[in-house]
Automatic annotation (TrEMBL):
GO terms for molecular function: DNA binding; DNA-binding transcription factor activity. Residues 27-163 form the HTH marR-type domain. It comes from Paracoccus laeviglucosivorans. It comes from the Bacteria. This is DNA-binding transcriptional regulator, MarR family. The lineage of its organism: Bacteria, Pseudomonadati, Pseudomonadota, Alphaproteobacteria, Rhodobacterales. Signal peptide: none annotated. GO terms for biological process: response to stress. PANTHER family: TRANSCRIPTIONAL REGULATOR, MARR FAMILY, TRANSCRIPTIONAL REGULATORY PROTEIN.
Length: 173
């Protein structure tokens, strides 16, 4: 497959202090960007699997396999790690078991709990997604997109937002 060259980087204008209303608008714009990025991530995974001639998995299922990784967990634990809704996880896990990507078995200590782990076929899918993400990271690194602001600082900021949202959810209940 031919290598794609990274897109050119446009300089980011310097940030200046902003009023609270503008900060709120920026936060709302961030939420819209997050939604678009999530949909684009799914499209990228879908396109990759179409290129590989694999139509048996949807992007959510491929990402679920990626996020399951080498762990053996319950559906609840997987849901708490990822971006999955309750019934969505159960439905997709059932499909992945049927397709032979995930092995499941009842817990010895709690017969209600089902533990899941990847089969060899599931590990192959995880490896394809890992390679896709590594290729993207390499392209982004070369382009300089991850430098201004540094991706580590961006991640720190999003982890802070994540903690705030988690606290808000706990506060409600």
């Amino acid at each position: 497959m031919p290598q794609r060259s990274p897109s050119p980087v446009r300089p980011v204008p310097a940030l200046r202090p902003v009023a609270a209303a503008t900060r709120t608008e920026a936060y709302l714009e961030s939420l819209q960007i997050l939604e678009r990025l999530h949909r684009l991530l799914q499209d990228l995974v879908k396109d990759e699997f179409e290129r590989l001639g694999r139509s048996d998995l949807n992007p959510i299922q491929a990402l679920l396999l990626y996020n399951l990784g080498t762990a053996e967990v319950t559906a609840g634990e997987l849901r708490s790690r990822g971006m999955y809704q309750g019934s969505n996880v159960s439905y997709n896990l059932k499909k992945l078991v049927e397709l032979g990507y995930v092995h499941h078995e009842r817990s010895e200590t709690d017969r209600r709990a089902v533990r899941v782990r990847l089969t060899r076929e599931g590990q192959d899918v995880r490896d394809h997604v890992t390679a896709l993400f590594a290729r993207h990271a390499s392209d982004l690194e070369v382009s300089g997109i991850l430098d201004d602001p540094a991706i580590e600082a961006v991640n720190l900021q999003w982890r802070r937002v994540e903690r705030y949202w988690i606290e808000q959810i706990r506060y409600i209940y």
